Amino acid sequence: MDIVKTLMIVEIVISAILILIIVLQPKEGDTGILFGGGFADEVKRTKRGAELFLHNATIAFTVFWVAIAIAIMLLNK
User: CB 21: neighbour CB atoms within 10 A?
Assistant: First the structure.
């Protein structure tokens, strides 16, 4: 199996995991600001537990996804 095809399969798996992680993250209610809310700026929250894990996992999987996409692009030259 070619390395580019393997990277493409890994890219698809990471994409699916990234979609799942993003869907699992809790909503923060910041859309209320668009309609005249304004209370979201006054309340600061700290991410803890599962919320922190999902936040960090989103960042890590996004970095992996971009790195693999760049590797695929460079290997296809």
Answer: 19
